[in-house]
Write a structure and sequence with these properties.
The protein is an all-alpha fold. The chain has two domains: 50 residues, Homeodomain-like (Arc Repressor Mutant, subunit A), CATH 1.10.10; 151 residues, Tetracycline Repressor, domain 2 (Orthogonal Bundle). It is built from ten helices and no strands. The radius of gyration is 20 Å and the shape is globular. 17% of the residues are buried.
């Protein structure tokens, strides 16, 4: 029996797990270390989440929902599709900037564990309805009007994600090979955010 469990402890465990998963990955993070960083005992970690897998899924689902919320906030009436797309690119970029270890976590853990990905998909069935399908419908409407060249929603999403993610994968390498200072990296990040917007918006224009 756990004495006096509370939501503050549960939140502390989630925050500690998030920090460690992003820094070290799933395999190299133990529930003992999560408990130490959270300032509680290991029994409480198991009380709230039962397994490390459940804790990982909770952390990752939280990140995905946070990102989806950011995208939903740009669905304002009265703004053009291009304005909305610009805001979505920036929202995705800012989420990655706040969580630079997230791309590594996704590639290392989810792509090598299809079952984990299937479980996460089952827990987030509402997100496609809230984000993906409305964007798909708007894209197709703009294509029908002749405002955007022929492309699929998958083309658009892959372009945005690959451009935004690449910087955060490459930054540690660039910092060493190009001997960039922290200040130069910060400047590169901010410049790249605007560059990605320009590249995407130009790429969707109809071919002359």
């Amino acid at each position: 029996m756990i004495a006096n469990p509370d939501s503050n402890t549960e939140q502390a465990i989630l925050e500690a797990a998030e920090k460690l998963f992003l820094e070290k990955g799933f395999a190299l993070t133990s529930t003992t270390e999560i408990a130490r960083v959270a300032g509680c005992n290991q029994a409480l970690v198991h009380y709230y989440f039962r397994t490390k897998d459940n804790l990982f899924n909770s952390v990752f689902e939280k990140k995905v929902r946070l990102f989806a919320t950011g995208l939903l906030q740009v669905h304002q009436p009265g703004i053009s599709f291009e304005q909305k797309l610009k805001q979505m690119i920036e929202a995705h970029f800012d989420m990655l900037r706040a969580n630079p270890g997230l791309p590594f976590l996704v590639f290392n853990e989810l792509l090598t564990n299809p079952e984990r990905l299937k479980k996460l998909k089952g827990n987030m069935l509402d997100l496609p309805k809230l984000v993906f399908f409305p964007l798909k419908a708007e894209l197709e409407a703009e294509i029908a009007k002749g405002n955007i060249r022929q492309m699929t929603i998958y083309d658009l999403i892959i372009s945005v994600v690959s451009l935004n993610v690449m910087l955060f994968i490459a930054s540690p390498i660039l910092k060493i090979l190009a001997e960039l200072s922290d200040g130069e990296i910060l400047k590169l990040v901010e410049n790249r955010k605007q560059e990605n917007v320009i590249i995407i918006l130009k790429s969707i224009k109809p071919t002359i």
